[in-house]
Amino acid sequence: MDIILKTDIAGLGYKNDTVAVKPGYGRNYLIPQGFAVMATDSNKKIVAENIRQAAHKAEKIKTEAQTIAAGIGEMTLTIPAKAGDSGKIFGRVTNTQVADALREKGFDIDRKKITVDDVKTLGNYEASLDLHKDVKHKVKFEVVAAD
């Protein structure tokens, strides 16, 4: 079943993408929630016209995402966490903590656009930033013991 996405959905696609999904997922979840519409000829024409009209705006958004990625560059964030003597932290480091550390540096990035692997010990790690459909960036962070 082909559908046209109305919003970005992690793991599936971005706004205005035409994607194939299982019929039950499309009919019972995506369409009723307002996340997608059926990929009929008329809907495809509407989306094509919307994309054509929004091309200028989309280019500006992409440029802003590239500017943010360039500003972050090779920056290494420091994230404090309570840890035991063995270096194992209590709890884990989440995308929210990475978003807060970026906010302190002057970059306001939504936590939903940050992917962090499972971090349970002190050390150096990488988080993925999904700034735009075409702009992905990795940011390094170090987990240190909090006082």
Automatic annotation (TrEMBL):
Stored InterPro entries: Ribosomal_bL9, Ribosomal_bL9/RNase_H1_N, Ribosomal_bL9_bac/chp, Ribosomal_bL9_C, Ribosomal_bL9_C_sf, Ribosomal_bL9_N, Ribosomal_bL9_N_sf
Domain Ribosomal protein L9: residue ranges: 13-40
Free-text function comment from the UniProt entry: Binds to the 23S rRNA.
Protein encoded by which gene: rplI
Keywords: Ribonucleoprotein, Ribosomal protein, RNA-binding, rRNA-binding
NCBIfam families referenced in this protein's UniProt entry, alphabetically: L9
Gene Ontology cellular component list: ribosome
Family assignment from sequence similarity: Belongs to the bacterial ribosomal protein bL9 family.
Protein name: Large ribosomal subunit protein bL9
